[in-house]
Amino acid sequence: MSEEKNSLNFLEHIIEEDLANGMPKEDLRFRFPPEPNGYLHIGHTKAIGISFGLGQKYNAPVNLRFDDTNPAKEEQEYVDAIKKDISWLGYSWANECYSSDYFQQLYDWAVLLIKDGKAYVDSQSSEEMRAQKGTPTQVGTNSPFRNRSVEENLELFQGMKDGKFKEGEHTLRAKIDMESPNMLMRDPLMYRIMYKSHHRTGDDWCIYPMYDWTHGESDYIEQISHSLCSLEFKPHRELYDWFKENVLEYSKSEYPNPPKQREFSRLNLSYTIMSKRKLLTLVENGIVAGWDDPRMPTISGLRRRGYTPESIKSFIETVGVSKRENVIDVALLEFKIREDLNKTAKRVMGVLDPVKVVITNYPEDKEEMLDANYNDYEDGFGSREVPFSREIYIEKEDFREEANKKFFRLKLGSEVRLKNAYFIKANSCTKDADGNVIEIQCTYDPLTKSGMDTEESKRKVKGTLHWVSAKHAIKAEVRAYDRLFLDEAPDAHKDKDFMEFINPNSLEIITAFLEPSLQSAEIGERFQFQRMGYFNVDDDSTKENLVFNKIVGLRDSWSKK
């Protein structure tokens, strides 16, 4: 029992303590509250995993709530994408909620705060309010409108709601303490006027509640027991509690259980940006092809690239839950997809940078079908037939005219094994006018066919090459992706814009030659191209024009860099 207690993360300890202190287990309720102003990214998967993971652990409901209070930036497209991403990760929510569902309740509570002298309408400009807010070391000064009468505040707030004023003419502020050391407590905004159509409420409202006012009260309405958020919201907790305690006085009988906010460190990843605003900049400037571009750290981008839900969940589990901010090496995420696909992906052959090999002693009119397992190390993957003929393609880097003893691939005068086929020996090569090898002439040993139990096939040969029959190979577009940024922390430089660190070679389009079994590959299907890496069939792919994305190489090439 003590070992199990020690293995709990600090959030689980908090919950266990609450249960031990008398909280009924049926009162446990969690939520994941994204703002629908962009696509979810890898950073969100930690918050998703924590909330939904706790729901699964304690058999408690988890709400998916959209904090949709800013119609200028929010769209239904983002709502749909978020739902798709969470479902793809394998989680299901108890209730689909929207903060906009609570607009009337929030407004009614705001009126009660005004009546209690705890909120007022301010008529200063945003610049004036910013100036009188003070600094972390200097207290703020009261607004000249802070002591308006309750009657005047109610009349002005009603006028704001009725559309009688221009944007920016008035705001509603909580009346707390302009001298508080926590600047968030210095009479924070609760409502602003916005003449923007909302994706759900249309033009019903022209005043919209601010995040800090909406978020905690939405938790309260939904009777969330533990409001879990990332560390940047820790200073907000005091305000969260102030709003909660005041509203509790109005609705204790209807909503008996106040929520508790607790914070965990967010997920920061090297060579990656996590700001939705900056990701939108990449989309709008055409640096990437959209939110689901396979170079993007969005969940939809990772899905299109070929990442699996299992690899992402394993990554999040390894990262763990902590209170301290840190940066996780993106190599760990890449390791997790390799680890997963190594167990699940079929091995096939594809040549990405071909050079022709002519097997001079193989009959010109002969073709044969060779049996090839999809996985030599695991059962259950099955096999397929691979055609073999006189002319094949191998990778250019797999041949050298001369090489030292550490080069175990094809060189003049030496022998290698062709995967699932024969031993071949390089005898000569043909070059173009620039000295590039364009053809290699080889001979094969017919007694070394894979599966033959002959003395010849037992010869010691160190190199095994993948290949495709030139006559039977299918052409495909391969999109070889590299990291989008060259800098480990692209948005951490005060004197430089993150766009300066864009990798100009983050995408290379290759015409590859693949074994014909891949003609029937379906969109989203993942494969290991032997010795080359892991690839999946892209959304753009058709039967006539196959398109593969490189998910990740077989090993971490960046560690060498």
UniProtKB/TrEMBL annotation:
This is Glutamine--tRNA ligase. GO terms for biological process: glutaminyl-tRNA aminoacylation. It comes from Polaribacter vadi. Residues 134-145 have a biased composition (Polar residues). The keyword Cytoplasm applies. It holds the Pfam family tRNA-synt_1c_C2. GO terms for molecular function: ATP binding; glutamine-tRNA ligase activity. NCBIfam families: glnS (TIGR00440), PRK14703.1 (NF011291). The keyword Cytoplasm applies. InterPro entries: aa-tRNA-synth_I_CS, Gln-tRNA-synth, Gln/Glu-tRNA_Ligase, Glu/Gln-tRNA-synth_Ib_cat-dom, Glu/Gln-tRNA-synth_Ib_codon-bd, Glu_tRNA_lig_a-bdl, Rbsml_bL25/Gln-tRNA_synth_N, Ribosomal_bL25/Gln-tRNA_synth. One of its GO terms (cellular component) is cytosol. Residues 464-538 form the tRNA synthetases class I (E and Q) anti-codon binding domain. Residues 345-445 form the Glutamyl/glutaminyl-tRNA synthetase class Ib anti-codon binding domain. PANTHER family: GLUTAMATE--TRNA LIGASE, GLUTAMINE-TRNA LIGASE. Its EC number is 6.1.1.18. Transmembrane segments: none annotated. Keywords: Aminoacyl-tRNA synthetase, ATP-binding, Cytoplasm, Ligase, Nucleotide-binding, Protein biosynthesis. It comes from the Bacteria. It is an enzyme of class 6 (ligase).
